[in-house]
Amino acid sequence: MQIRVNLGEKISYNVYINELKQLKFDTKVVVLTNDLVAKLHLDILLEKIQAKELFVIKIQDGEEYKNLQTIEYIIDQMCHYQLDRKSILISFGGGVVSDMGGFVASIYQRGIEFINIPTTLLACVDASVGGKTGVNNRFGKNLIGSFYQPKAVYCESDFLKTLPSRELAAGMAEFIKMAAVFDDKMLDFLENLDKKRFLNGSLEDDILAQIIQKSIELKANVVSQDEKENGLRMLLNYGHTFAHVIENQTGYKKYLHGEAVAMGMHMANVLALRLGLLDLQECERIKKLLLEFNLPVDYLVLDVDEFYNAFFMDKKTHFKKINFILLDGLGKACIKNDISKEDVLETLKVFA
Ligand code: NAD
Ligand code: GLY
Questions:
Q1: Is 14 a catalytic residue?
Q2: Is position 219 annotated as part of the catalytic site?
Q3: Is 85 a catalytic residue?
Q4: pLDDT of residue 42
Q5: Which of 350, 172, 195 is nearest to 261 (CA)?
């Protein structure tokens, strides 16, 4: 199965689902991964790669290492291996690895080609496609980065078989996001999905592939229309305005990204409810779905003003106007930049 991300002649690419056979390169290739993914799957991947020379760089595992220090470490290693402008980087891991791999590829010798081979559900359904790359700093999430598209993406459901339940659920959060924003029929599909089988990793391969396919089709469609996030693509940030504050406040350690997104979506829905964009039944429907996938929904806001002020570091805040992405009914979303401070504070108080 293949999905095309259409971005014009030069930078369009394919996302392949369960089609990874042999990859042949007449250049040097470096695989970027971490110890955990390497232990589980690297041998299988390396068997599939033929290159002039093949190198592996391993980075520390965790969102807390998604920073400029790690970028510098990767670049040092690439210089050490004398990788040149024709070399190709393959990111092999979850969203942390693909965000950093893409960023390094965009700046190493002013840009080299890269390929994503995602190994988490979250990276398959979202992070590996669309060319957002980058790292966090102490001021906030993904504040440093670039838009830089991969040459190809290979999603393989076999790699996902070793994911723990919590990681599967975190990936599902991004898929629920896609469904809630673009396609309410997907919510029916998720409500009928066997949650137990999904969470214990025994869902049939073809159903998992269907989930990945649907998500990538939705994302490819959005990215093709608005690569650099000037409008439509902002909708993919539903839940993220709140989630990024949660992740930053908790030091990128307590919650997985998908868990923060789940709480962020619920907070956004409570705000949408207050504004009359969602009704109580719709708000509760998403909350129930998140809970059924073992995702958290209630973040404890310790300091309402501090949480509010953190929104001003969000990349969607322009000229002090916070752009909130809210559901306007299920399967539809809108961008709101005129919400009163009082409405936002009152929403945050619900969680205090
Ligand atoms: P992650 O990359 O930290 O991976 C989660 C954990 O799973 C890690 O411990 C990892 O080592 C482990 N892991 C990876 N593959 C595994 C496997 N096959 N079996 C067992 N364990 C495995 O986190 P993530 O949830 O994949 O990605 C989150 C990141 O993605 C965040 O930094 C987020 O900002 C970013 N993101 C980016 C985009 C984008 O468009 N660029 C979109 C969504 C999220
Ligand atoms: N994950 C949001 C985006 O790619 O735009």
A1: no
A2: yes
A3: no
A4: 98
A5: 172
Q: Write the pLDDT tens digit of every residue in 109-158.
A: 999 999 999 999 999 999 999 999 999 999 888 999 999 999 999 999 99
Residue 44 is predicted with a pLDDT of: 97
Q: Measured from the CA of 102, which atom of ligand 1 is nearest? A: 41
Q: Does residue 99 have its Cβ closer than 6 Å to ligand 1? A: yes
110 a catalytic residue: yes
pTM for this model (two decimals): 0.96
Q: Is the CB of residue 27 less than 8 Å from the CB of residue 52? A: yes
Cα separation values, 164 from 56, 158, 159, 170, 177, Å: 25, 14, 12, 10, 21
283 touches 272 (CB < 8 A)? yes
Asked whether 34 lines ligand 1 (CB < 6 A), one says: yes
What are φ and ψ of residue 339, in 5° steps? -80, 135
Q: Are 40 and 98 in contact (CB under 8 A)?
A: no
Q: Which of 28, 41, 58, 244 is catalytic?
A: 244
* Domains of the chain (ranges, CATH numbers): 2-160 (3.40.50.1970), 165-350 (1.20.1090.10)
Say if ligand 2 is within 6 A of residue 233 CB: yes
Looking from the CA of residue 162, the nearest atom of ligand 1 is: 19
The first and second tokens of residue 187, run together, are: 């919510």
Q: Which region among 204-208, 257-261, 310-314, 322-326 has the lowest average model confidence (pLDDT)?
A: 310-314
Q: pLDDT tens for residues 281-290?
A: 999 999 999 9
CA–CA separation, 130 and 328 (whole Å): 24
Determine if ligand 1 sits within 6 Å of the CB of residue 285: no
Please name the residues in contact with 307: beta carbons below 8 A apart, sequence gap of 6 or more: 245, 249, 301, 348
pLDDT of res. 331: 97
Six-digit token string for 202 = 């025994």
Q: Which ligand is nearest to the CA of 218?
A: 2
Q: Do the beta carbons of residue 259 and residue 244 sit within 8 Å?
A: no
CA–CA separation, 38 vs 92, rounded Å? 9
The string of pLDDT tens digits covering residues 204-263 is 999 999 999 999 999 999 999 999 999 999 999 999 999 999 999 999 999 999 999 999
**Residues 6 or more apart whose Cβ sits within 8 Å of residue 9:** none
